[in-house]
Amino acid sequence: MDVFENKIVKIGGMGLYIVLMTVSFYCACYRLPVGLKYAINMLVFGWACAMFFIHPLFERAKFCMRFFLLFSFPYMLFWMWSVGIWISEFQNLAFIVRGSQNVIYMMTNLLFVAGAIYLFGKHTLTLTVVGMTVANGLVALQVAARAGIGTFISEYIRLLVTFADDTGSAMRSMELHDMVYGWGVCAVYYLIHKEKNWKIQIFCLAVSWLFFTMGFKRIAIPAVVGAIGIYYVMYWLKPKHLWTLATIAAATVGVLIFLYLISIKTHVFFDFCDKHEINLMSRDVLFTYYEDFYQLSPTYLGRGIRFIYAYGTEHQNDRIMVNAVHNVYLEFYIEVGFWCWWIWIFYELAFRIHRVSKWYGDIPAYALMAMNFYVFFTFLTDNTSFYFPNNVLYRMAVMVWCFEVAEKRARTLEINELIKGGIHENNCIRSPVVW
Question: Rounded CA gap, 65 and 272, in Å?
Fold first, then answer.
């Protein structure tokens, strides 16, 4: 069952949503004030609330609330842990405001995704991709108009052939950091998820890979390939004890990343990169700048969420911007400490997969594992933890997949009721679940 009972109203609602998504992602293209997208988040959530009061679908609302809670826990944990740190250290207001502000932004992202799913169900991601395409397409048209279409195309081909070693000014203008990681999510999703309408699949796949490669972030390429590989390996093997496997994988990943942090702290990582002539693009400077702020020990409790951004902004360096370390694992460890960091690793990589598997089956859980790999791989070299597009899209993709499973189950229940003779006197099928 649709939220919009009238077909014309539904089409109008979809059109309005695409316009809102165009504006939101145009903000992510750095063409509009960044705060506007968070206002749109709340507008979509408010729209969903209004539609719930007009035409309540309780099972769908329950579905959305369940995922909101599932995705919001790490942010609430980080914030509550940070409050304790801020109070105990008598932290100044600027640090408290910055940390709280980002958590609020992330919560609006989750409210937006929940609201969008309530409004449009399984069509949500497709409509969102259309809005993204318009926004990124507008930027591409502007860049092509300035550089010339011939230059634009030739630079794009050079970018692909040289694996981003040769990047012209036009392609540098298309390197929209926030957007490219969002397109990476779509590039994965439309290669592991089969749409009912093959034309939609081809369109979404084509625009995803076009803008993903146009933005071209090297770290995102193996992230996408690895994510796709993980999904199909899991799909073919279908391991019986997914919860155990996810827990072992989370522990393994956590240990490897912690060893990576140790290598950074002890400068072994820098020596390795120097020996093999790997260009860290000043990340060694950033890592070293904050090395006295933390200890790799269970006694280290953190500095508070978004400490690095607030401190780096307050203590600007003439040589390099120091309000980000371009390594989410190091950033979160410095900010939330040893214990909170480990809880985050196990929650994201094990517990959440267990919940999705228990509620909606193993196939959506495999998709979540793939998305986790993609997102966590980008954490190695970039500040993607608070980027709008990838945070919104990977959660939306998982929710849409699970929504389709839930909807299919609801239809099966309806058929079973019909077979059992569960028909009212008015010949309407009694449906135990209304979507």
Answer: 46
